[in-house]
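Recall the central idea of this unit: under ordinary conditions, the amino acid sequence of a chain determines the structure it adopts. In this exercise we apply that idea directly, starting from the sequence alone.
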Amino acid sequence: MSGILALSLFGNIVVATLHLLEEIAKEGILPFSRFFARSTTTPIARIGQWLRSRKESEREEEPLEQSPAGALLLHWVFAVIMIAASSGEKPVTAYSLLFSLYSYVTTVILGFFVAAGLLYLKWHDRREWVEMRGFKPWGGPTAPIIYTITCGFMTVAPLVPSYDIITSIPWYVVPTVGLSSFILGVGYFAVFRYVIPQINGKQPVVERLPVVDCNEKGGWVLRYEIMEFEWQVPERRLSEGHAMN
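Accordingly, the structure predicted from this sequence is:
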């Protein structure tokens, strides 16, 4: 069972978490966003290219596989910090603590806001949302309502004092660290999006140009994406400056 859980977490990190961090970096939110948003060619892809070049020298070169190395480095740094912070505990306690933190933040808190966001899109501007989604889900909003209530309960439930007989982890550790990390992330985004533009008079502008190609089976494939990020003066302030002159 432990091996199955380890494989599941590894797949989640490789497929979901790294690409999520890469997409966040592409929005220019993180410091050094260009570095963390950049993908690099994997060593396996280079070895495969070298082997193919020896067998078929006249074959047309295919785009090499890219990996979000910057996002992997960022995730590795935070993973090392969390492991180091729990290194003083027993292996069972440390594993239970890290797994509980990951589940609480990723599954419960984020799941609550995702489901609540779907309900907001449905009832805030229903006509536009219906046109964009292009389909009507079975059961209507039943699934997000149930998920919002469930995740909301699971967000509040750990705040009730309890005692873990197996690991002896204090009941307040997981909810305190989980909610604190989430609040810090929201605060960082608020400062980046609203406070800094008020101070320097500029707002972040991101332009993303996807480059797609058609594969041998006729399907569209995203080859790479060009990202441009800079701080620009809003047009409203430019017009106000011209009016004053």
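Residues 200 and 233 are 9 Å apart (CA to CA).
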